[in-house]
Specification:
Blueprint lengths: L2 E5 L3 E6 L3 E2 L1 H11 L9 E5 L5 E2 L1 H16 L4 E4 L3 H9 L8 E2 L2 H21 L1
Parallel strand pairs: 2-4, 3-5, 4-6, 6-7
Antiparallel strand pairs: 1-2
């Protein structure tokens, strides 16, 4: 799967450069994304600006991937969903399980807020 990766201070932006996300592509994407959990900067923003369709199994894998990140104290945010993809995820009742925001700027805000939240929670323990 071809993706563009842009590393920022607190997160990595991963942008698939194809329009259709299939089950096998999501498995490949997962293999590319999971190693970020071992990095100092482990938050990921998945930019779906070019994605027009997602297969059902791929959508479920994305939800599982997000859960994996949160279990490892890392943020996983999806931004720039196209309307058909958003409707598809909503119909499959997956949208409510994903951290989705309209823009990359808002994804950055979410990552920052979650980082602060984790720091506060870690400080209370």
């Amino acid at each position: 799967m071809n993706v563009k990766i842009d590393t920022k201070e607190k997160f990595h932006v991963i942008t698939p450069t194809i329009g259709d996300i299939t089950d096998s592509m999501t498995a490949e994407l997962t293999k590319k994304i999971l190693p970020y959990l071992q990095n100092e900067v482990k938050n990921v923003v998945l930019n779906f600006e070019q994605v027009t369709t997602v297969e059902p199994a791929a959508a479920e894998q994305l939800a599982a991937l997000q859960q994996n990140f949160y279990q490892n104290s890392a943020s996983f945010v999806i931004c720039n969903l196209q309307k058909p993809v958003e409707a598809f995820l909503a119909d499959r009742e997956l949208l409510e399980h994903l951290n989705v925001v309209p823009t990359e700027s808002e994804a950055w805000d979410i990552v920052q807020m979650e980082e602060i939240e984790r720091e506060l929670l870690d400080g209370d323990i």
